[in-house]
Design the sequence.
């Protein structure tokens, strides 16, 4: 994404990390009564989630997005507090854009009719890899007081009664059994493996946190270790488990590898 100041200076720069993007919301969310509100936020990709700024009222969309669901999701970012205007800029040399232009009124009059059905694989291998352990940690911290502390909870996992942990595991597995019975065994294996690795770390790393930012001074000086890291972010150690910041989207794509016999 790019951001422009009130006096149309050049863009402040391309922002590739979520933390940098979050810092800019202070300016985007500023109102006209403030001294230096930002005028324009230009996204290099379609905006899906996270850009919840009430004062945004005008959006220009370059070309028709791939799916109607994406079109609705992106354009709903504006007009939240007061009425907004969406301007779609079509390319006359693209047959798809031209067709949408010619049928603009009919398409928008029945917009939700054109929303595509999507498939869901909630307990596939890649989904489990990215989110299952996060659900486990969330439930453990929410239901077991000793694990709740951000600074001390992660290192206490071995001290917890195994029956309490098993109760939470069973809750997760029972839910999986309802949705996808064939994935229960693999999900349990993943949970057991993650817990074993967590316990090993709690024995060797005396300052184990659930998560700290990679710029944290304690982390940079090896005084603090972390169990988790943001998906796709920098990490010093292989044992740091990549974890999604949101389950509303998949963030980075899964890799596909082909082996030939």
Sequence:
């Amino acid at each position: 994404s790019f951001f422009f100041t009130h006096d149309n200076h050049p863009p402040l720069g391309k922002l590739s990390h979520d933390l940098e993007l979050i810092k800019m919301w202070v300016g985007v969310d500023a109102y006209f009564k403030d001294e230096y509100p930002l005028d324009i936020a230009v996204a290099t990709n379609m905006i899906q989630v996270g850009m919840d700024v009430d004062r945004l009222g005008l959006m220009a969309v370059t070309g028709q997005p791939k799916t109607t669901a994406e079109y609705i999701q992106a354009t709903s970012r504006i007009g939240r507090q007061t009425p907004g205007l969406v301007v779609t800029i079509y390319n006359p040399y693209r047959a798809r854009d031209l067709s949408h232009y010619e049928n603009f009124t009919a398409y928008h009059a029945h917009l939700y009719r054109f929303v595509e059905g999507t498939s869901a694989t909630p307990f596939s291998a890649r989904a489990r890899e990215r989110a299952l352990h996060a659900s486990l940690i969330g439930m453990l911290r929410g239901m077991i007081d000793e694990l709740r502390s951000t600074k001390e909870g992660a290192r206490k996992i071995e001290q917890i009664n195994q029956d309490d942990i098993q109760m939470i595991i069973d809750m997760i597995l029972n839910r999986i059994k309802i949705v996808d019975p064939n994935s229960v065994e693999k999900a349990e294996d993943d949970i057991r493996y993650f817990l074993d690795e967590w316990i090993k770390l709690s024995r060797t790393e005396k300052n184990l946190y659930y998560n700290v930012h990679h710029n944290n001074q304690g982390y940079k000086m090896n005084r603090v270790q972390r169990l988790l890291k943001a998906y796709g972010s920098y990490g010093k150690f292989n044992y740091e488990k990549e974890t999604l910041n949101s389950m509303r989207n998949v963030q980075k794509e899964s890799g596909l590898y082909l082996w030939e016999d």
Summary: The CA atoms of residues 27 and 149 lie 32 Å apart. The first helix runs from residue 18 to 28.
